[in-house]
Amino acid sequence: MSPQVSVLKIGLSPSLVGSAPEAHYALRTLARIAGYATEFAWADDREGLWDIYWGPATASVRARVRIDALADVRRVDGAEPRTFHTQDDIGFIDFDGERRGFTRESDGSTHFRGDIVATCYWLLTGTREPHYRRDRHGSAYLDDTFLQRHGLLARPLVSEYASFLRAVFRDLGLEPRPLPWTEDKRAAFLFTHDVDYPQMIRWVECLRLTRQRGFRALPLIRDVLGGRSHFWKFADWIGFEDRFGVRPAFFFSARQGSLWEYATGTPDCFYDVRSPGYRALFDMLRENGCEIGLHASYNAYRSAEQLAGERTALQQASGTAIEGNRHHYFHLNPDAPHETLAMHEAAGLAYDSSLAFAYYPGFRRGTCHPFHVYLPDQRRELRMLQLPVAWMDDHFHRCLQRNRIADPELAATELLAAVKRVGGIATVDYHVRGMNADFFPQYGPWLAAFAERHLDSRLRYLTPREVAKQYAAYEQLLEARSRDFLQREAVALGTAHGAAVTADGVQQRRDSAAATCTVGLLQPHEHAAWDAFVEAHRHSTIYHTIAWKQVTEEGLGHRSTYLRALNSAGEIVGVLPLFTVRAIDGRSLVSVPLRDKGGPLVTSSEVAYSLAAAAGQLARTIGAKRVALKYPPDGHEAALTSAGFAEERHWVTTVVPVAMGEKKLWNDVFRSPTRRAVNKARNSGLVPRWSTDENDLQAFYRAFLMTRKKLGVPAYPYAFFRAAWRYLFAKGQLRLLLVEKDGVAQGALLVMPYKREVVSAYMGSNPDAKDARVNDLLFWEAIRWSSEAGYESFYFGADSPLQEGLLAYKRKWGGEQFAIPNYFYSTNGVVQRSADSSSPRYALTRKAISLMPTPIFRAFSSWAARKLW
Predict the structure, then answer these.
(1) Which of 2, 344, 434, 551 is least surrounded by CB atoms within 10 angstroms?
(2) In this predicted model, what pLDDT tens digit does every residue of 195-253 receive, in sequence order?
(3) Residue range 56-75: average pLDDT?
(4) Looking at residues 502-529, what average pLDDT do you find?
(5) Contact status, residue 178 vs residue 412, Cβ threshold 8 Å
(6) Given this model, what pLDDT does residue 2 score?
(7) Of 73, 6, 35, 65, nearest to 491 (Cα)?
(8) What pLDDT, in 10s, does the model give residues 613-669?
């Protein structure tokens, strides 16, 4: 007799098909944790009562649980929520500042006024994580983040929502399938151990003891030298966990590091798993029923081949299959952890347990249940299971100054209580050497004392491998009863106007686009028609013009491949500027290089789809690795993803509204510190001057070189600015502003007025004149002129979210900031992301560039700028 499984009928509004994959992922995760199979369908595909409906608040669909949806779940990518509040012990994250909770309607249904689907997606994907400040290891500082401010690491909201839904549907007569460990227990507890430095380097530890304890260390130093105090504590952990009827899981590193590597920034473990001593250890661990997992090396996230090689090496050395992993230092790709986890899946691992914060205990992705990580670029979930970590030993010792936990036992007790409330798993990570009470009294000995007081028979004690296998069988049971009528291709495709997609939706979409327009390469005789279309389009930028094509070709040497779409009457209905960039990591098609705008301009989403599809085909034809579309106008997201493009929202732009006039800006928008800075610059003898002399470009370029060199980033070649002057200045689309003292330029700024906007394009200043507030006078004069000349906005351009100081500086001018979308298409299946030079991983590169002599820096820059996109 097959086990009983209840099915939730979940309806999604077809008007929100553009973010259906994300909603599907979040709702499926909630249903799994709650214990239900699922039947997904478009909510207008059939009449009747839905168990869960996700759609617009204005819809009249009947459902037992109704969730008011955001217009697009992906809008929360990279977002910092506004508020958090609770209602009846249920927590709600609000992204727009409105405090929305839930109501119980008179018909017995439950109505979520806020989009808990978007909240779950935001938590489960960690979409805000790339924006956090990080240390040199990529470990996040959460001091003033939304998660830390509201205590959400200790409150697994996704698991709480699932528990709430379980209770709702159980009361309605739909019995949930219990999680494997909750059939007779409340929750599960997992002891796990990273094997970092199990062999003591005695002279190092003696020096450390002497430095820390002075003469008081002599008795312990004798024990260390005599071998009585050591870190080889495998038997101690086996004995300790035997009391709970479970065997430990030990994660071993297969890459041997060294003390030199450790000192120079690659802190891998020092041991060799192939040595006789470790082979004997593996025999002992196997005989005692212990689990052996991989502790992937510090830089393994950079290469799928290296990761797979480490797994193979450990399997050969240990004589057992390696099914699970935890990354050394939790060191995933800090900009895209999911990319590293995808490598783990490709390496054949069944589970991973690396999604934890190095300095902070708690549930990094909002759940204390096993879950599948989402790949936003591919819009699918990984098959590999993720086991969240509740805490590790160092969280309650050396990290206390960072995480500011006053009472470690209370913090651990609260985490355990949260797990028990929702039937999750509490995975703890204690290093093997931590059972040495001489060195680490707050590690293994602390856990033993905690266990005596708080671990009881209501917990099931398991190994990670056991949890992974049990949960896989549990999922298979649910999946056997689940059905999906959303149509896989329709979910991935989306529609331009929110219409439902039929079974042959993919072909229908292509047929529709083909009938709408014909895409081809721009011909010389079409330049005037191209510019006329661009000029008339409300979302056009200077980067769409033929003039910018000429600037880029002449100034950077890139070959252009401009695509235009014609309707049946031969009129242009869409344009896409593309340049071939021979980048360091492979040929790329980019719209447009080294700027933050330039995506397709179109009259309809069908045209956007056709141009994007043609760009992908062109990339495959010329052997390019990727296509990058910079900040296309809103409204065509579904069309671009239909053509195989993945959205990324990383860069943050700043726009200053200036139409209100100079006086209102100065008096009402700028705060007194900003006004004082500008006045200080004026009083120090600095004078702004708009130049019409091309010879002044040399003064601009000297300042530009100084600024870029100081930042450690390549400068553009002088030929680029000479070409910009040649093709843009006479049209009034380029203006040069100098700030001088005694006739000598101390700072310079190139702006590009176009239609209703002035773009702050390129600037530089003399570092020695920083205290005189040169930059403040530069930007005030540019903003003042923009307002006086009748423009509506001053566009500062996009910056890294890691440049918090720069973003704050731009906000002081009244700037409004938001993350902009870029779209990437890969021809080789490799996930594409923007390279952010502000990332800590490039710190040494920036430093090396900044130390170059100016002539070498200028020559290097001319080469490097042509390789960047």
Answers:
(1) 2
(2) 999 998 888 888 888 988 888 889 888 988 998 999 999 999 999 999 999 999 999 99
(3) 89
(4) 63
(5) no
(6) 53
(7) 73
(8) 999 989 988 888 999 999 998 878 888 888 889 888 889 999 999 999 899 999 988
Q: Cα–Cα–Cα angle for 447, 453, 457, nearest 5°? A: 100
Which residues are bridge partners to 195 per DSSP? 252
Q: What is the pLDDT of residues 707-742, one digit of tens each?
A: 999 999 999 999 999 999 999 999 999 999 999 999
- With CA atoms as reference, report the closest residue to 113 among 144, 83, 69: 69
Under the phi-then-psi rule, with left for phi > 0, alpha for psi from -120 to 50, and beta for the rest, what region is 373?
Answer: beta
pLDDT of residue 74: 82
Cα dihedral sign for 140, 145, 149, 153? negative
- Residue pLDDT, tens place only, 745-777: 999 999 999 999 999 999 999 888 777 789 999
Find the DSSP H helices in 712-773. Answer: 718-728
What percent of the chain is predicted at pLDDT more than 90? 71
pLDDT category at 98 given cuts 50, 70, 90 is confident
Q: Which of 105, 122, 130 is nearest to 800 (CA)?
A: 130
Taking phi over 0 as left and psi of -120 to 50 as alpha, with beta for the rest, 193 belongs to: beta
**SS3 of 703, please?**
helix
Strands 586-591 and 626-630: parallel
For the cut 90, the answer to whether the pLDDT of residue 503 exceeds it is: no
Q: Write a three-state SS string for 100-128.
A: CCEEECCCCCEEECCCHHHHHHHHHHCCC
Confirm if 607 and 565 have CB atoms less than 8 A apart: yes
Of 212, 237, 233, 209, which is closest to residue 221 (Cα–Cα)? 209
Check residue 284 and give left, alpha or beta (phi > 0: left; psi -120 to 50: alpha).
alpha
Q: Please count the helices (runs of H) and the strands (runs of E) in the chain.
A: 29, 36
> 97 — phi, psi (to 5°)?
90, -15
Closest CA to 513 of 605, 633, 636, 601: 605
- The alpha carbon of 851 is separated from its chain's Cα centroid by a whole number of angstroms, namely 31
Instruction: Please provide the DSSP assignment of 173-202 as one string.
Output: T-PPPPPGGGSSSSEEEEEEEEES--S--H
Residue matched to tokens 């709650």: 34
Please state, in angstroms and as integers, the Cα–Cα distance from residue 470 to each residue in 25, 70, 242, 477, following that order: 21, 35, 21, 11
Strand partners, 52: 10, 65
Spatial separation of the C-alpha atoms in residues 330 and 364, rounded to whole Å = 12
What's the rounded Cα separation, in Å, for the pair 683 and 84?
Answer: 47
Angle at 78 between CA 74 and CA 82, to 5 degrees: 95
Given the structure tokens 């952010």, which residue do they identify? 836
Cα separation, 77 vs 67, in Å, equals: 19
CB 639 within 8 A of CB 606: yes
CB 576 within 8 A of CB 533: no
Say how far apart CA 537 and CA 541 lie, in whole Å.
Answer: 9
CB 751 within 8 Å of CB 737: yes
Contact partners, residue 207, CB within 8 Å, separation at least 6: none
The answer for residues whose C-beta is within 8 angstroms of residue 837's C-beta and 6 or more apart is 713, 800, 845, 846
pLDDT, one tens digit per residue, over 813-841 is: 999 888 899 999 988 767 667 788 888 88
3-state secondary structure of 37: strand
Enter the tokens of residue 781.
Answer: 């004069």
Of residues 418, 452, 444, the one with CA closest to residue 159: 418
* Phi-psi sector, 387: left (phi>0), alpha (psi -120 to 50), beta: beta
- End-to-end Cα, the chain, rounded Å: 60
Give the three-state DSSP class for 358: coil
pLDDT in tens, 545-593: 999 999 999 999 999 999 999 998 899 999 999 999 998 888 899 999 9
Bridge partners (DSSP) listed for residue 42: 12
Query: Which stretch of DSSP H or E encloses residue 8?
Result: strand 7-12
Using the structure block, give the residue that is written with the tokens 């000192």: 263
